[in-house]
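Reopening closed ticket. The problem is back. First fold of the pair:
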Amino acid sequence: MKKEGTEVKIKSLQKALQVLECFVEKQPLGVTEISEKMGLYKSNVHNILSTFKAMDYLEQDPDTGKFRLGTAVFALSRALRENLDISRIVVPFMRRIAEEAGEVVYLAIPREDEVVYLEAAYPESQKLSGSIVTGERAKMHCTSVGKAILSSMDPRERQKLLQEPLEAFTQYTITDRKELEEELQRTAERGYGLDDMELLFGIKCVGVALVNHEGKPEGGLSISAPSLRMSEEKIQVFAEILHRYKVEIQKRL
């Protein structure tokens, strides 16, 4: 993904990385699929994929011939996470939150109109690995942590991020811009965001923004649980837990 205001110096490298980015949306992929999607010759796509395969950025299924992301991508992702200050600061707190709440806890950071999930912490009772969320993205308008981050932003900055139509992911997703603004106002007033089965049916989340010393949201934390376990009473309990740890975390940001 090219940043605005930057100049691409090596077009061939840009093309190769754009091929690699195709795997963010879907895996596995074949030469023909990528060729048609990007409008490139199959021979060019094959050469790019073969090079990434040789460097372990892609793996190829011997039966189907299709490709998926390889271990070298994971190594880069892990290095990025480990060098982000917010991860180093927040992860120890996440483990304590997960045990106290008895539910999974996520750390996410804002990227344009999305949040990117960096880490997850599970209570001992669930015995799951948090690595499954690494790099996953979700639109801000349908996640608790995204709403909390949006409500902490300057209104003009928020408007720039929300220019595109609001996509519906379930029947509960807010797609009306005025309704979303009202929800963000409620989020700011109560100090936490809610995802009421708006991203995934059957899953509810409570989220808070993590704001640095300049007053800008650097990321956010959320507690997620099946909707049957997320009563109004539980929501209030989880919001209190998140707020308590948020105060401690923000002292370090």
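Second fold of the pair, where the issue appears:
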Amino acid sequence: MIILITGATHTGKTFLAKKLIGKYNYPCMSIDHLKMGLIRSGMTDLTPMDDDKLTDYLWPVVREMIKTAIENGQDMIIEGCYVPHNWQQDFDDQYQSSIRFICLAFSDDYIEKHFDDIKDKESVVEKRLYDDCTMESIKADNQTFRQRFGQAVTLIEDDYEQAIDSVLND
């Protein structure tokens, strides 16, 4: 089984991955680590701010890693925001039946009520060396993910822990 986690900024993709590692004992790959390895090694001129270009650059590699893991009967958690909205078109039914897709996004109301909590927990799993997010930027990113992924989004509206627990117990 491949568990593919994506979502908007600050929604807890890495936090959820860590919980799923504990539950299933699957290995995990962070697309952010892949991104930074390629950037820091000079393998690309892209920067961490080039989100759409990074998705186009990283997804073909991630997609083929997923296919290889499925073909070899290997389980893996892959998490990061660089998953295209039309990711499913890259996998036929044989592959799709082995992929559990999770997309996390906050509602605008949740962001307004819990912005301080969101900021306080932004480095709970991985240290953010630079983060200039604002309520407006978090809202915009979450709106983008809600629009791109529609019904596939796990929408966090009230209770964060309850939303994460529902994903864990699916």
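Update: turned out to be a display glitch only; the data is intact. The helical segments are 13-24, 31-40, 51-71, 93-96, 108-120, 135-149, 160-168. Residues 57 and 85 are 15 Å apart (CA to CA). Please close again.
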